[in-house]
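Consider the following input, taken from an annotated entry for (diamondback moth) hypothetical protein (Plutella xylostella).
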Amino acid sequence: MFRLFSRMQSLQHEALRSISAEQLALLLRYVATLRRQRKAQQRNLECAFCKNNGESPPWYSSHGLKDWRGRVLCPVLRAFHCPRCGATGDRAHTIKYCPEMKIVTVGSSAFDIRHLK
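Applying the prediction step yields:
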């Protein structure tokens, strides 16, 4: 077992020595990005949609609202169909957050304007 571990460690060191400084820097940045994403995902393991809708803490703490790519994770919201655009699943949203809602700013006030298809 120790020989296998030692051999694997030797191969890893050999691989690291074979890449350029630029490649190593790129690899380290990529690893740092993955770590940040994982930490953000762990922090966001509370669904704001379910929490705001009065669900119990065990339920809204069992999942997050979206993943790091912005895809909907909440099973309740995923099943919802937007009455305006029909979006559901990964891109599900309530009508309040529908991308087909246009926001027009007039002076210092913002108004929601629903455009017709």
